[in-house]
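Appendix B, example 12.
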Amino acid sequence: MEGIPNNKITLNKGITIPSLVFILLTSLLAGLFPLETGVILDHIKNFIFVNLNWIYVWSVNIFIFFLFYLVLSKYGNIKLGNNDSIPQHSYFSWIAMLFAAGMGIGLMYFSVAEPMQHYTAPVFAAEDAITRAKNAQLYTFFHYGIHAWAIYGVVGLSLSYFTYRYKLPLSLRSCFYPLLKDRINGVWGNVIDIFALCSTLFGITTTLGFGVLQINSGLVNMNVFPDTSFTYQVIIVCVLVAAAILSAVTGVSKGIKILSSINIVVVVLLLLFVLAVGPTTLLIGSFTEGIGYYISSFIELTFNTHAYKTDELPWFYDWTILYWAWWISWAPYVGVFIAKISKGRTIRGFVAAVLLIPTTFNFIWMTVFGNSAIWVDSAVANGALSNIAGNPDVLMFSFLEYLPLSGITSFLVIFIIIIFFVTSADSGIVVMDSIATKNSTKSPKLQIALWGGLLAIISLVLLNAGGLGALQSMTLITALPFSIIMILFIVSLVKALRIDYKYYNRDFSATTDLWSSDSWEDKLKQIVTFKNKSAIDNFISTTVKEAFTEMKEVLSKYEITSKINAHQSPYRIEIEIEHHILNNFKYGVKTQSRNLPEYLLEEQNLPGVNKDESFFPLSYFGDTREGYSVLYFSKNELIIDVLKHYERYLKLLTEEKNVMFTSSNSHHEKIKKVKKKFKS
């Protein structure tokens, strides 16, 4: 899209129009018929959660162990960009923006609510208070820990790799390039991006809707607003979306980056305050014990489907499966944003940071707020927080009332939620525009602002009609197909990484080892000439045959018997030295073909290419090792190469540990008899 004027619309019609039609139709149904739409979508969602929950479980497991593998593998040092790329953002700014996009509002909304709801859940009522408190912390860690960030990590890594390493657009379609090649630019690519755009808008809309409810409740708690009526929700949405649009049009490196950095500082200050005025010793000890409990329970939690505890299944569907579906549904949006800020990092650094740093902070945050709330509930509030555990909109503010300076801390919570709201919305606006324009960098500011306006309108319509729940169900339903898409991302990424690693680690051809400056023009001619079959057959029947014949004659002087074998399909000649006890030594050369890519035929600076198939002489060996082209060898160079392999063969024969490789099954009994003879 280079050269497009700043005032020209950059939207891609094939993506934008179908996406807007589906978004508006779904929003209208949820707004006009919230109950009916909600019932239908809930029925579909419940069917998926009950009957297909194993897809979510296995998908998340695959994501986790795949990322663990990458960290430990040879691919870990590959950069997300050129080999000389450096990160665009400082480590602090990068991590701060990860939080802003990932689960910022969720931390504020559920840091007290989730532990309290696990603590008071009827399904765990038979357990004692200490066990319920420990399990409340464990399950909160589970839902906000490595599993959640592994989902984001797979999408973010795939997008970063194909965007900055393969120079493809920052688009989900790019992640299928190794599988679909240029077909990603057609209908299938549009379908993938339409799915991503709709999923992003639905996910942001519902999350921001719940964020508005919590902000409104907080302002009522502080006596800023008299009630939580729709009028005040309109004011909140308009002010915050306007701020998000302003931040989005200033770009990632300015608005989003600055707001994220400010917010992370305020978040840490609030965290330290609650840690200091709360049950500090208990919190530090429970965090330490909780980490150990999480690590020791990791595998069990990861694979647990509660199949043998049917009474726990409703809780499992409403929490674990809902969370996996929720994080997966958010993955297109968060993945695109993470990719947008991650150029220049290595795969190992990216995965380690995305999995461990946000997870560790989440654990600290959830321990401080969740365990403090449980302690307050049992030791100070006489169960008052347990009584309102089902009302997360006000639970955080009710908890803070039992701590000093509750007015200031409540204000800080609202401030943090507002910043998270703005950073989530502005990064969402940037991502939606990026998807809808195929990653154009020339979008006009008005176009970016229109995405913010669409978010605000849909949020308000659904807040007023009570349709947020229906839209949330739609978002969770979309997670099922996207989990399959993410597995295909992994397949595509593995295929690309193998090619990448082989490309940058490909050594010079073995035939170049013996090159000297003599006859360099002949070597150049051989390099740029793409041979046909008859030329290679002629090379084998002359140069190769002459080399083997001369070597056979010299071997006979040392009383070493050898023979030359010729075969027709494929045409090949080999020299073979026979042995009675050990495997024969064999070095052969055969005619081998390879297909040339179509684009090479159009390359003007390679005049030797005129067919889609080229042939070369490939060496092969008696022990089935991988051969290589011997096209550039002269007769004497080929003899030297055979001698190198014969010397290797004789050296291996002298080491008894190699006997299983240097002898066949038919020779093993002969070897045993020889050993027995010498021993006797």
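The first strand starts at residue 562 and ends at 568. The chain has a mean pLDDT of 84.
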